[in-house]
Amino acid sequence: MYLETINLIFIKPCTTGGGRVKFKAKMSRSIAELMPYLNAEINTGLYIPQAHTFTYKIESHIINIKDDRLTCTQLTNEAQCYEMIDHLKDVINDTWERKESITPNEETRERPSAIQLYKLLPKKIGCKACGHASCMAFASKMILGTARLNQCPLLKEDDYSPNYLSLESHLQLLGYETD
Amino acid sequence: MDVYLDNAATTFPKPSIVPEKIYDYIVNNGGTSGRGAYEKAMLADGLVYQTRKSLAKLFNHSDPKTVIFTSSVTESLNLALQGILKPGDHVVTSALEHNAVWRCLKTLERDRGISISVVPANSQGETKIEDVEASIRPETRLIVFTHASNVLGTIQPIAAIGKLARSKNILFLVDAAQSAGVLPIDVQAQQIDLLAFTGHKSLLGPMGTGGLVVNCDADIHPLISGGTGGDSAYEYQPDYYPNHLEAGTLNVSGIIGLGAALEFLETEGLGNIRRKEDFLVAYALNALKAIPNIELYGPRDSTKTVGVIPFNIAGHLPEEVAYYLDQECHVMIRSGLHCAPSAHRLIGTIKRGTCRVGIGYFNETADIDTLVNGLQSYLKENK
Question: Does A82 share its domain with A154?
Answer without folding.
Answer: no
